[in-house]
Amino acid sequence: MTILGPLLMAATIIIPIYLATQNNEIKNVAILDETGIFIEKFKDSDNLKFHYLTSDIDSAKNTFHSSGDYALVYIPKTEVTLPTNAIIYAENTVNINLQSYVKNVMGRHIESLKLQARLHELQTDKKEPVPVDDILRSIKTSIDINTLKIGEDGQESKSYTEINMALGMFSGILIYFFIFMFGAQVMRGVIEEKTSRIVEVIISSVKPFQLMMGKIIGVGMVGLTQFLLWVVLTFGIVTIVISTISPKDINKTATEQMLKRNEAISPVAADALLAQESKPQEGANKVIEAIQSVDFPVMIGSFLFFFLVGYLMYAALFAAIGGAVDSESDTQQFMLPITIPLILSIIMAQVIIQDPDGAVAFWFSIIPLTSPVVMMIRIPFGVPYFQVILSMVLLLLGFLGATWLAAKIYRTGILMYGKKVSYKELWKWIRLRER
After folding, report:
1. Is the Cα dihedral 8, 427, 330, 321 positive or negative?
2. What is the pTM of this model?
3. Is residue 82 a contact partner of residue 110, using CB atoms and an 8 Å limit?
4. Label partner for 92 (CA 20 to 30 A): which of 83, 131, 258, 327?
């Protein structure tokens, strides 16, 4: 491990950087700008290539699937004010990089136009100098980007990238900690039975493989029960708290409260106050819509599968380590190679979230050692069914292979005492035929 350890740790740093630099997939993005303000304002980058459409939005949406474009950015025409909103159409959830780029380009250009108009106004009026802070405050612009998914049948559905990112990261990290926590429990349980010599009595009644699987499944059921209790109790607490809060108190605005207290308020001040209050209300409505858009049955079902099968696979390997050593201090040299794929999955999470449909995300969600975490990160963004099924099948095969490998080590190592086990010794145990 003196040599292997640094190599594995270096790999967790080098591999993500290498894969991130190799992700050079070019995405073509169509721009339909009805205002004409942003023509040639979107510049091509290493991964994004922009081209402009002159057709109407209905024609652009009808030909979107056959165009080969990654996304369609639609900037609708406004009658009075400068455009501050855009719609991005795509087959799947649009990655956060494209949203941020479109928002930055539109925001900077609108602010530049506002600044030019404001300076021209000041030069024309020739009034007293206006503080710079007031000018900056007057030109500040907030761009609202809405993302819509277009199905093969032309049906549109709203997508929420930020919610998908949060949900994916939360699910992936939860599986990561559950596998580590309950897998370590299996390993410590095996070591405890081995050091106390209780295992010698137990295997007189059951086979070593049955003992190993009994411990793995038992701890797994404990983890599943704990997770279900968390879901039920959290849902109950949230429901009770929401039901105890009066809806009138929630919807009552500051203006209504001031009028109820008979406080004087001018019409202009009331309009300004209502305008300020409408923004948080719109934000709250968007959050509610985003939460309602989540397919919770699919998320919970996928979580249960990838948690259980991923746990069973890793728990078998943890049990093999526990059966091969005499104390917990001897497990370190065997733990690192097993845990590196899990650690790498969390490290790559940022790259996967930025491009959930890319090649890196695909392969990491297919390989059994990383798929429990990575696939749960991808599922909120929408994953083709064949990829999910392929990932599940390969994960089941990985579980069977890990169980077979662990059983070979566990069967021999469970009765070995007082000997420091090496990788060479483990290889002999794996090759040893059962009589």
Report:
1. positive
2. 0.70
3. yes
4. 83
